[in-house]
Amino acid sequence: MTALFPVLEAPDGRVVLRFEGQTLSARQLARRCAAHLERLRAAGVSPGAHVGVWTQPRLETCVALVANAAAGFVTVPLDPKLGPRELGHLASDARPVVTLAAEPEAVAGRLPAPLLAVDAAESPAAVRWRAADRAPLLVLYTSGTTGLPKGAVIAASSVAFDLDALASAWAWTRDDTVVHALPLFHVHGLCVGLFGALRAGGALHWLPKFEPHAVSAALEARRAMLFAVPTMYHRLADAAASEPAVARGLRAARLLVSGSAALPQRDQARLEALLGPRVVERYGLTETLINTAARAGAPPSPGPVGAPLEGVELRLVDDERRPVVAGQMGEVAVRGPNVFLGYLNRPDATAAVLDAEGWFYTGDLATADADGQVRIVGRRATDLIKCGGFKVGAGEVEAALLEHPGVLEAAVVGRPDDDLGERIVAFVVATGEVTPEALIDHVARLTSPHKRPRAVHLVPELPRNAMGKVLKSKLP
User: Fold this and answer.
1) Which residues, at least 6 apart from 405, have a Cβ–Cβ distance to it below 8 Å?
2) By the number of CB atoms within 10 A of the CB, which of 97, 130, 268, 294 ranks highest?
3) Is 465 left (phi over 0), alpha (psi -120 to 50) or beta?
4) What angle (nearest 5°) sits at the alpha carbon of residue 120, between those of residues 91 and 223?
5) Tens digit of pLDDT for each residue in 37-58?
């Protein structure tokens, strides 16, 4: 079984990490990782222990995350913006024996575990890197929109399998540089971005914050793949429409990948008109990493998030977890080496979503066509609306609203209704003069009349988490 990052086993002088004018070659990264591991050993921390990493935007943060993963420490990524309640829960649940920070003064005293500084020291010591086996690699906390966050325990072999499948789907090689401005406490930025770049043998250019000009400049400088979320692509489309330099940089990218939420088809079409190549989408969760992906070089197909990755089984099921008839909407269930080991300290929560046959029930609603292309329509808990005897996916109504030129953002939920069971309610961020009545009629024309919102509320913004996902539980 190979190491998670083969690039560290025979490191050379190729640049593998870039951050704010700083670069690290594979050889320098290996030496910094060796020094990092010496620091952990000196503190009495052994492989297998839970180690917190404050994901501050510094190159040293990347080194700590890579070194932990490569040598067998179980990383608990920490968002520096977490509040006391969330940190208290995490401290009692994950119990990290130590936390690491590139800027320790900014997080001192926030967790009871000892705090160690991560610095730029190097060591020539030889290191035996761990095999990518079924031992835990990460504890990643879910968003916790329906309660306290749960810690999903991810195995090293799951990350290796998933990244290799993505490399096949996207023709991802050591010649590629990944560009992203995503946080490193989520699957997207950490596993797919940082770990993926090193697993493929290429490089990562990590930007401390998202800014269209900086992104486009990084893309234009080298053969690059951009990983971003829909909000970022919307802003890139706005900038590219008026600034040729931004469009030129985006056009230079080998592949543009969108994830973490559905990319509105309107933004997809805008980018395709401006740039030529479309943005490819993929679909995943914290517990399963990436399940499906549009293939590089495939004919454009806006809307679907691609077919299952090689080695991942996917089926749609009804409320009784029986497979649905082809073409019907159902809950997504997946099975494969990418599925997590379970929730930390929560066997009850694990049993609720992971059955004896290894199927993980995602809670996401989708449809699939004859070619296996999956289209996500929402969450089962919040986006399956039972209105007047019909089952309506909130995502379909949102997509229709976003086709209106006066709509910038939209979120649709079901609300209790004495007559209908649930009524469809939309929250809309408008770009100009538009009335709720006009939007209701717009949806009724594009879809079936029973899918129209019964109420539309115009709001200045939608509540979102750090990855840009709308928090429907926080809608009024």
Assistant:
1) 431, 432
2) 294
3) beta
4) 95
5) 999 999 999 999 999 999 999 9
